[in-house]
Design goal:
mainly beta; three-stranded antiparallel β-sheet; 48% strand
């Protein structure tokens, strides 16, 4: 999970996933682009749960999920 800050996207978050059989990572945007809001509390924690990668807000709500397989 990466946070990008620049004049092109403002603040944007993305996840890079390399799936089986692929040599380059796939970039999955986790928020609208461009974004201009501080989302550090929105994407507070991340974990692998079963076959999914999930990000949770500071309140523990799942705000992003992508399968790993």
């Amino acid at each position: 999970m990466f946070r990008r800050l620049d004049s092109e996207v403002g603040e944007a978050w993305y996840c890079e996933v390399t799936r089986a059989g692929q040599s380059t990572p796939q970039k999955l945007w986790m928020s609208d682009v461009p974004g201009f809001i501080d989302r550090r509390d929105y994407f507070k924690t991340a974990e692998i749960s079963g076959n999914s990668y999930i990000a949770k807000s500071r309140l523990g709500r799942v705000v992003f999920e992508t399968p790993l397989a």
